[in-house]
Amino acid sequence: MTSSPPVLEVKGLRTEFHMGRSRLCAVNDVSFSIGRGEVMGLVGESGSGKSVTGYSIMGLVDPPGHIVDGTIRLHGKDLRGLPERQMNAIRGDRVSIIFQDPMTALHPTLRIGQQMIDAIRAHRSVSRSEAWRRSRDMLGRVGIPSPGERLSAYPHQLSGGMRQRVCIAIALLNDPDLIIADEPTTGLDVTIQAQILAEMQALVAARGTALIWVTHDLAVVANIADSVAVMYAGSIVERGPTDVVLRRPSSPYTVGLLNSVPSRNQGASRLSQIPGTYTPAVSEEAVGCRFAPRCPRADDACTVFPALTAAATGAPGHEVRCHHPYAAREGRLSHV
Amino acid sequence: MKSVVRRYFANRATLGVAILLVCVGAAVFAPFLANQNPYDLAQLNIMDSGLPPGSEGWDGHYYWLGTDEQGRDLLSAILYGLRVSLFVALASTACALVVGVSVGLFAAYRGGAFDALLMRVVDLQLSFPSILIALILLAAFGPGLDKVVLAITASQWAYFARTIRSSAQAERSREYIQAAQVLRYSSLRIMIVHLLPNSVAELGVVVAVEMASAVALEATLSFLGIGLPITQPSLGLLIANGFSFMLVNKYWISVFPGLVLMAVLISFNMIGEHLRKINEPGYAA
Amino acid sequence: MGWFIARRLGQFLLLLFVMSLVVFVALFALGNPVLNFINPSSPPDVVRQAIHNLGLDQPAYIQYFRFLSGIAHGDLGNSYTSGRPALRLILERLPATLELSLGAMLIATLVGIPLGLGAGYRPNSLVGRFVEGFSLLSVSLPTFWIGLMLIIVFAIETGIFPAGGRGPTTDLLGMKVSFTSLEGLRHLFLPALNLSLFPMALAMRLTRASVEESLRMNFVRYARAKGLPPRRILSVYVLKNVLPSLVTVMGMVLGGLLAFSVITESIFAWPGTGKLVIDAIQISDRPVIIAYLLFTVFIFSTINLLVDIVCAVLDPRISLRGAAS
């Protein structure tokens, strides 16, 4: 997609949780890359492994979780197996993350300013007053009115939207190369959500920051992302340029997901639903395609775990993990 | 051999129960195990006073743990002292259990302002150190076995009330209690037949822990000389008696009763800790 | 914030009133103490005169009101034995008890909190195992027994520290204190250590538990995501979260220590209020007992009040919640 070397390149990532004797595989064979200034949507239901993928990149997977395989290259340097000390120097500096719930992410009894100054001074040797000034400027840039006063406020004194803006400001503080946004607009009003989305897009575009937007909301992805990766049960089932994947989906799961989005479904009398129930935890022994039990196109071939292959659309980078993908024409949704 | 022992005692509760059984056995059968009744002055021999452990007495008597300043066989004194200590702990914990459970169940069952008031009292009492409550009561009533039991009961009942009330309150909202109310069973019947058995699990922990603290509190009060009278010497009093002789290097008069006291307390606490683990959600044997 | 403090102050005054009533009623049930002081075979009119002098022939409620108005004037009656004002006796002994309790608190905090932090941060480390063992022992061993062991080991066998007494004191702001001289410190150390073991174990366990809980919180993960060094996370982000509950418990414990010092003072012959009250109980010196109990409850409740206020300052959410309810 881009000619410049990628900012982040993830290959064959596998993260497991060891619970007693059983091993749950939360992330299985996840690969993608993202270039400077690119926005990638990482889409999936809760428990599909999209957040764990984000934590794995940050090196924040705690026991009982372990990254067991794969490489995570930031500017070509593998972060996996990096000593904790060096990883700490990268976290919050080159790569930062925005959590889903800013109320629990921000420390409840430390002032906003202190939490921002800490984030700067962990990576830059600047004076407190200089760090304070940078923090104030950044709050102003993410659209917080009278930022100087907000710095001495506690998190509980701000509204939900303000708190999330604070977290976005913290993520931007050290001008990182990559930001992972883990469902940052969930739980906010739709209007505020749209505002934050637009602001975020403008901020990363201006700085050339790569952005991974983790979400379950396809509408958000359609708005913001250049490319999209759809995850199901720990694996990427389809990925490619956003407009190609959303307009000409190839994986039966993506098709089902798109059919259950209300705005996409205006013509239909009833919102369709993917049949069956989702089982987030996948034990290590599971074989075959994880979506097969709910898939309308499943047959005997699906007892073998499929590999990612080029999709029938022929679009650059459009790949699908399926034995029976929709062909370029039939996968199109009738009413789009 | 060592590994067998270790595996068997790996479970601290087993060790606790074993120690406790030995202590209770020794206390119950003290008159048969002891080679003298330490409170029958006629059986004491002043010539044997202050003998170190393992001495032979004037009349060829063998004193395993030595004697005190009045020539009393320390082993016999400890066996009888254990009897008194355990009896006081048992009596006061039983009283505290009855009072606390009644109050707690009643509060949980009645609810409302009544519940709020009672729990306020319980909270207030729990914020006071138990020794202060015991001091107030003993200052008012003076020393004596019954008064010590009263003082310990008074400083303990609130723990039982708190425990039973919180678990009973969780049960109260369950369907079967509501069903019993619809069927117009009497309040008392519902409380005793339905609430109590289902709230019992947590009580076990409190009983074990409170037995330990009752033994400790009684020993402390007796050591301070405001607990049991000199005629009913518990382990605490034995330790107090030996205290002054420690300075002249006759340490055994205090140390041996102290070690037994320690064993009793540790065993109760081990059992309590194990019961707590069993009660925790997600416990697998 | 002001409303929050006012409400707590109201509760505090109510508690004191209730306690004065409880203590008075409890001691009124004690019966007639006069017979402890004068020869029982004295002629009846001598006994009657003694009872009258002590005001014990008045009805109970009159005695209570005289007692209350006495409190208002700072007069809690005179000791039956020495004839000196009971409150004065207590205040004379108070510096010794305060010094002992604060010393114990200092040891408990300095040792307990760092060990608890370490044990919570790495539960399987040596520190973690030590804290686990220490807490079982500390709930199992009564204070007086540990005190005896300390005396045997450090005073009788090795002679490093004296076995009892307060040693030399110097005047500091009108109070006699012993921590100013080396010899005084030697006398203070064993009793303070003895008294510190209970709050120390409490501080360890509490710190450990809240650190373990804090480490699972999202804000710690977020602090790590910001790339903060572990030391900073532990000493600011975790400690700041642990501190309010720690201050609450340790503050309440300090109040409790004033009462618990009864035991330690008796063992180490430390001339404080605890020793005074034990002697008074043994001879039924009622005014001294009442004065001690009321005074202890007063200090205990005052400390609890201060603790609540400090907590409201440490955790800005508390006073907000208090005002809302």
From TrEMBL, chain A:
Stored Pfam families: ABC_tran, oligo_HPY
Q: Which PANTHER family does its entry note?
A: DIPEPTIDE TRANSPORT ATP-BINDING PROTEIN DPPD (PTHR43297:SF2), OLIGOPEPTIDE TRANSPORT ATP-BINDING PROTEIN APPD (PTHR43297)
Q: Source species, please?
A: Acuticoccus mangrovi
Family statement drawn from the similarity comment of this UniProt entry:
Belongs to the ABC transporter superfamily.
| Top-level taxonomy | Bacteria, Pseudomonadati, Pseudomonadota, Alphaproteobacteria, Hyphomicrobiales
User: Where do the ABC transporter domain residues begin and end?
Assistant: 8-258
Put simply, this protein is called ABC transporter ATP-binding protein
Q: Which InterPro entries match?
A: AAA+_ATPase, ABC_Ni/Peptide_Import, ABC_transporter-like_ATP-bd, ABC_transporter-like_CS, Oligopep_ABC_C, P-loop_NTPase
What's an example Gene Ontology biological process for this entry?
peptide transport
Q: NCBIfam families from the xrefs?
A: oligo_HPY
Q: Which parts form a coiled-coil structure per UniProt?
A: none
UniProtKB/TrEMBL annotation, chain B:
Q: Which GO terms describe its biological process?
A: transmembrane transport
Q: What is the lineage of its organism?
A: Bacteria, Pseudomonadati, Pseudomonadota, Alphaproteobacteria, Hyphomicrobiales
Q: Where in the cell is it found?
A: Cell membrane
ABC transmembrane type-1 domain residues: 82-272
One of the record's GO cellular component terms: plasma membrane
Species this protein is from = Acuticoccus mangrovi
* Sequence intervals crossing the membrane: 12-34, 84-109, 121-141, 221-245, 251-271
**Database matches in Pfam families:** BPD_transp_1
Q: Does the keyword Transcription feature in the UniProt annotation?
A: no
Q: Would you identify the family this protein belongs to, as annotated?
A: Belongs to the binding-protein-dependent transport system permease family.
What keywords tag this UniProt record?
Cell membrane, Membrane, Transmembrane, Transmembrane helix, Transport
For this protein, the record's Gene3D superfamilies field holds: MetI-like
Report the protein name in the record: ABC transporter permease
* Listed CDD domains: TM_PBP2 (cd06261)
Topology in the membrane?
Multi-pass membrane protein
Automatic annotation (TrEMBL), chain C:
A single GO CC term for this protein reads: plasma membrane
Q: Does the keyword Secreted apply?
A: no
Against InterPro entries, the record matches this protein to:
BPD_transp_1_N, MetI-like, MetI-like_sf
Where located?
A: Cell membrane
Q: Which PANTHER family match?
A: ABC TRANSPORTER PERMEASE PROTEIN (PTHR43163:SF2), DIPEPTIDE TRANSPORT SYSTEM PERMEASE PROTEIN DPPB-RELATED (PTHR43163)
Kindly list the organism's lineage.
Answer: Bacteria, Pseudomonadati, Pseudomonadota, Alphaproteobacteria, Hyphomicrobiales
Q: What is this protein called?
A: ABC transporter permease
- Where does it mainly reside? membrane
> Source species, please?
Acuticoccus mangrovi
Q: Which residues form the ABC transmembrane type-1 domain?
A: 94-307
Q: Where are the transmembrane segments?
A: 12-31, 100-121, 133-156, 188-207, 242-269, 289-314
Q: Which GO terms describe its biological process?
A: transmembrane transport
